[in-house]
Amino acid sequence: MRSERETNEAIERYGDTVRRLCMIHLKNEADTQDIFQTVFLKYLLHTADFESREHEKAWFIRVTINACRDVLKSVFRRRTVSLDQVRDLPAPQGESGEVLRAVLSLPRKYREVIYLHYYEGYTAPEMSKLLGRNVNTVYTDLTRAREKLKTILGGEADG
Hints:
globular, mainly alpha
């Protein structure tokens, strides 16, 4: 079990990443808060050491994505109607609400690669390992996601 200090430091380092990933997948604040708590509780109870900061960050991303998928697959979630109020979501600093809405409107597999590439700076081979997908599939998803964003936003894709 990790100390309170270690957990607080991890929240400082990875809290924004976990929140953004949750919002991209779940599109609502309540579920985001639940998953945020779940992820950091798992971290608190996780006893294995990480090889590096990158390994630790990858662990947080993988655990967050898995927890989001679990919520999306839950029986409760399947029997309810989503209240997608994207227009009310705050845009991350330096980003227009229009771009955020466009990214959130993409299918999940495209949202994931766009987020990991443009927000977290991962390369396709790194995303391949994180997402458990073939590297060529990641390249294809990234290309298709850019094209969809270009169509949605009505402009030029700028890579």
